[in-house]
Design a protein that fits this description.
This protein is α/β, with parallel strands linked by helices. The protein has a single domain (30-329), classed as 3-Layer(aba) Sandwich (D-Maltodextrin-Binding Protein, domain 2), CATH 3.40.190.170. The protein has helices at 2-27, 44-59, 77-85, 96-99, 118-123, 128-141, 180-188, 201-206, 217-222, 248-252, 256-290, 301-314, 318-329, and strands at 31-36, 64-69, 90-95, 143-159, 173-176, 192-195, 212-215, 231-247, 294-296. InterPro entries: DctP_fam (IPR018389), TRAP_DctP (IPR004682), TRAP_DctP_sf (IPR038404). Keywords: Signal.
Length: 330
């Protein structure tokens, strides 16, 4: 009798132990993210992404790790985005222009003269319209925006001749990323846009496939583009706001505290890196001048701003632009 009554007890104890071990295994589950960006290892962004990774690992006690890959080591940006949509544990530093291929309205962030300061860029996070676009990206297209507090600075036209007004860009083939808002922005400002991957800019200029590029000053020094370009024309036509994006499917599987850590540390690292870049721009500008580039500062900004409006009109984004700008101004 004693043996028969002990059997159910042993079974219950065994089941309880198994449940406890299972719960412990679930709690100890580890997650990883492979994060890709196109910039070089000496760019401020790369160090910023590494800092983000360190903070997330620290906050999750190693439960969530991020491995950062520079110079597009994991592949072309557009291909990475498609992998994320399929649920892969991959992240990408991208921009609103490319995200606009999925949710057209969000592309306005990469339009000409959309925001003019870090404060305006950070205020975008509180825009109801921006929040709605992000929700649509996640629900309908599988792309989770972790944060977009990474501001790479003002983009200018870097060419082989001085540019002071839109007419001076006539006939020039200027490298741009392959996205409608970028293509139309450069076309509206007076140049002929040529879609080209970031890593192909230097050889593209060498081989005269393009006559110039529109970039930020630190890109020029990091990529030694002063060797193939002569003039830095300070049009400041786009304040480049970058988006850190992961798979929505992958993100939703993370524990809630891991999600919070990933987002909060992304914002903190982004704003810290943006401040570093703002300081680095002056140094990069001085550096390209030392390398022989001529800086053109007397640019007709009014003419460029007026010309830039055509990009929004062509893409049907004028109303979206005005709506978001009104929201961040309040």
């Amino acid at each position: 009798m004693r043996n028969r009554s002990a059997a159910p007890l042993r079974a219950a104890l065994g089941m309880g132990l198994a449940l406890m071990l299972g719960a412990g295994a679930a709690a100890a589950e580890e997650y990883s993210l492979r994060f890709n960006h196109v910039l070089g290892p000496n760019e401020p962004y790369h160090k910023g992404f590494q800092a983000w990774a360190e903070k997330v690992k620290e906050r999750t006690d190693g439960g969530l790790t991020i491995e950062v890959f520079h110079s597009a080591q994991l592949g072309v940006e557009e291909d990475i985005i498609e992998q994320m949509r399929q649920g892969a544990n991959i992240g990408q530093n991208t921009d609103a222009a490319r995200l606009g291929n999925y949710v057209p309205g969000i592309a306005v962030v990469n339009g000409p003269y959309f925001v003019g300061s870090l404060e305006e860029a950070y205020a975008l996070a509180d825009s109801p319209t921006m929040q709605a676009w992000q929700a649509e990206l996640a629900k309908e297209h599988g792309l989770k925006v972790v944060c977009f507090d990474w501001v790479q600075g003002f983009r200018h036209f870097f060419t082989g001749k001085p540019v002071r007004k839109p007419e001076d860009l006539a006939g020039l083939r200027v490298r741009t990323p392959p996205a409608p808002i970028w293509q139309e922005s450069i076309r509206a400002l007076g140049a002929e846009p040529v879609a080209m991957n970031f890593t192909d800019i230097y050889p593209g200029l060498q081989q005269r496939a393009v006559d110039g590029a529109e970039l930020v000053y630190p890109n020029i020094t990091a990529g030694k583009l002063y060797e193939v370009l002569d003039h830095a024309n300070e049009t400041g036509h786009i304040l480049l706001v970058n988006f850190q994006v992961v798979s929505a499917e992958w993100f939703d599987k993370l524990p809630a505290d891991y999600q919070t850590a990933l987002v909060e540390e992304c914002r903190a690292a982004g704003q810290a890196t943006s401040a570093v870049i703002a300081d680095a721009v002056a140094k990069a500008k001085a550096a390209v001048q030392e390398k022989g580039m001529t800086v053109v500062e007397d640019v007709d900004m009014a003419a460029f701003r007026k010309a830039g409006e055509k990009a929004y009109e062509v893409l049907g984004l004028t109303e979206a632009k005005e709506k978001v700008q009104k929201e961040i101004a309040n």
